[in-house]
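Re-run with default settings, no changes from the original entry. Doing this only to confirm the output is reproducible before filing.
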Amino acid sequence: MPKKTRKTIEETSTGGNKKFIDLKNLTEEQRKALVQKIENGRVDGYHIMKTGRKKWPRSNPDRSESNNLDPKIKKPKK
């Protein structure tokens, strides 16, 4: 099972995951960029869910809740 390294740092007003942090190198990325990486096979441990016209990244299911994209974590202050 690949190690999941992404966490949500910003959500929409309805709770959709909007911005993420890669815990390996502490880089931030928008939803569309992460979706594209997942679709291109560059990020393991995640899949895409489509609702209407939007695509959303989701963690592949496993027995651990600690590696899910939700809940949102607080962004460290610079």
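The mean pLDDT is 85. The chain is about 10% helix and 35% strand.
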